Amino acid sequence: MAVTRERVLAYYAQGEEDRRLRGGRGRLEFWRTQDVLRRVLPAPPARVLDVGGGTGVHAEWLTADGYEVELLDPVPLHVELASRLPGVTAREGDARELPVRDGCADAVLLLGPLYHLGERADRVRALAEARRAVRPGGVVAAATINRYAAVHDTVLQGLYANEPERRAALASLETGVMLSPTHGFAAYFHDPGEVPGEFADAGFPEVARYGLEGAFWLYGDLGDWLDDAERRALLLDAQRALESVPSLLGVSGHLLTVARRPA
């Protein structure tokens, strides 16, 4: 079985991704993504192309920070919801064939597309399109899900005791393809070591990698840390100190890889 457009659209039509990032422990991924991007993006009012930006979870705060944001997404429901956000321009688009001119953006974000493209050639094509769309010296940042995330997550949620979920999680270790029989989630999970090669084949010879959640996402619901502003700041600071330790990159649920288009 494969990661197909039909599976991806069916999952996101449920609206789960928006709820996941705005509540519970998913907020750790959201705030860490925000933390890294605020350090690597050019200063506002730079123009940001948010490819696969969903309902605008990140476009919303980027616009509030003063960026000019255009969101592209293949899911009509996402485009409709994102277009309601103040200052956000949203339209349908495919990461593999961006409907934009060359060098039109100061930064391109791929915070979802790479793990929903099951074929390596499609992922490299999406990165190459991002390279085309960003100006020389501009930033491209892409999120991937780590190969080991399904085993960690199913144990944490108690789903590993369910045989179909356990088989799917273990299969993802071998193939990279995760097809959840419970949630309908379909994605490609990268080995952290393969991500730089995909960037290199798309024309980015140098990258920086950031583990977003570290091991902290496995600490239960994290409510005591995430609900309190002072403790949340400490938690984010703790992972910032560990974010690029090579031996810990694969422990995170998500990896953010950042590159600049060569001048």
Automatic annotation (TrEMBL):
InterPro entries, sorted: Methyltransf_11, SAM-dependent_MTases_sf
Keywords (A to Z) from UniProt: Methyltransferase, Transferase, Ubiquinone
Every Methyltransferase type domain range: 49-141
SUPFAM superfamilies linked: S-adenosyl-L-methionine-dependent methyltransferases
Record GO biological process: methylation
GO molecular function: S-adenosylmethionine-dependent methyltransferase activity
One Pfam family here: Methyltransf_11
Lineage: superkingdom: Bacteria
Protein name stated in the entry: Ubiquinone/menaquinone biosynthesis C-methylase UbiE
Organism annotation: Nonomuraea pusilla
